[in-house]
Write a structure and sequence with these properties.
Strand order of the largest sheet: 1-2
Organism: Elysia marginata
Protein name: Transposase
Order of helices and strands: HHHEEH
Number of helices: 4
InterPro entries: Transposase-MT_Hybrid (IPR052709)
Structural class: mainly alpha
Strand content: 5-15%
Distance between the termini: 61 Å
């Protein structure tokens, strides 16, 4: 099953060049809003948001763009912390 060709302009926001522009902008300050990044990169706010959330797997937490998924090291650190906490509480 395949979609029929659609009229209109193809989506270019998710090209590597645009993704790298967003990463460079975000590396300066993780607290930037989509609006500020869109101004710096000459992309629409919705395109910037789509790239941040879908392509780069980032979420806005506490006014910062952070990776949505934890690394294995971060997961292990959290498990160890809560095991120690649980051991202290149960004693």
């Amino acid at each position: 099953m395949e979609d029929e060709p659609r009229p209109g302009r193809p989506v270019t926001a998710c090209e590597d060049a645009n993704i790298s522009k967003i990463l460079v902008s975000l590396s300066d300050d993780r607290q930037k809003t989509c609006e500020v990044i869109s101004t710096e990169t000459s992309m629409s706010r919705t395109s910037v948001f789509r790239v941040l959330t879908n392509k780069l797997n980032k979420k806005k937490k506490f006014s910062k763009w952070v990776p949505h998924l934890l690394t294995d090291e971060q997961k292990e650190s959290r498990v160890n912390f809560f095991q120690k906490l649980f051991a202290e509480i149960s004693n």
